[in-house]
Design brief:
The protein has about 200 residues and is α+β, with helices and mostly antiparallel strands. It has 5 helices and 15 strands. It folds into 3 domains: about 100 residues, Roll (SH3 type barrels); about 35 residues, no CATH class; about 55 residues, SH3 type barrels, CATH 2.30.30.240. Helices cover about 20% and strands about 35% of the residues. Strands 1, 10, 11, 12, 13, 14 and 15 form a 7-stranded mixed β-sheet that branches.
Length: about 200
């Protein structure tokens, strides 16, 4: 029976020390292989996301995804910086009502620098930057869920789920009408933001 990416995202990573929410799963776009899972170790009022390799997980069962790590190992795992944004979406300069200018790009750069300047450079901050760097060239599973799909004949539907085999390689996209579409038929992402399949 295939594994559902949506079910994996909704499951809890279960360790001896407790259960943790899964906020993201990353995969290699060339091979469709699941590579990393982002876990939220934070509590009610804060989020502390860490990156864990799928190699540390056992097969999921009953809404839980068993994880072979203890709390100390999880706290030492690479951190993910979720405050990143696409700076190309910001305008280079804004002119206010009285002729004053403001640069959102410069403001964002200063804010980012101030956020990291107070923290001493240590193994933990290196791990934090390393976590984001490890997934820089990977795709997020959540970016594919809800994605519109087109084929040669036009629109095919939206992706409701992605199925993976026991080796954690995604093999099929499940469309909103229940059709399973082999991911080997995927060609590219269109400029308009939808997926093109044969």
């Amino acid at each position: 029976m295939p594994l559902s990416a949506r079910d994996l995202l909704n499951s809890k990573a279960k360790t001896q020390d407790g259960a943790f929410s899964i906020s993201q799963i990353y995969f290699m776009p060339e091979t469709w292989r699941l590579r990393h899972v982002v876990l939220d170790l934070g509590g009610w009022f804060h989020s502390e996301e860490v990156l864990v390799s799928v190699e540390r997980f056992a097969m999921p069962q009953g809404g839980e995804w068993p994880l072979r790590m203890d709390r100390e190992e999880l706290e030492g795992a690479p951190k993910i910086d979720d405050t990143s944004y696409d700076s190309t979406s910001l305008p280079p300069l804004i002119v206010g009502p009285f002729g004053n200018t403001f640069s959102p790009l410069m403001f964002a750069a200063v804010q980012s620098e101030q956020a990291t300047s107070d923290v001493p450079r240590s193994a933990s901050t290196e791990a934090q930057s390393d976590g984001s760097e490890r997934v820089a060239y990977m795709d997020k599973v959540t970016d594919w869920l809800g994605l519109e799909v087109f084929g040669d004949a036009g629109a095919l539907g939206r992706i409701e789920d992605l199925h993976a085999n026991d080796a954690l390689v995604m093999t099929h996209a499940v469309l909103d009408d229940g059709t399973e579409l082999a991911l080997s038929r995927y060609r590219r992402m269109a400029d308009q933001g939808h997926a093109l399949f044969d």
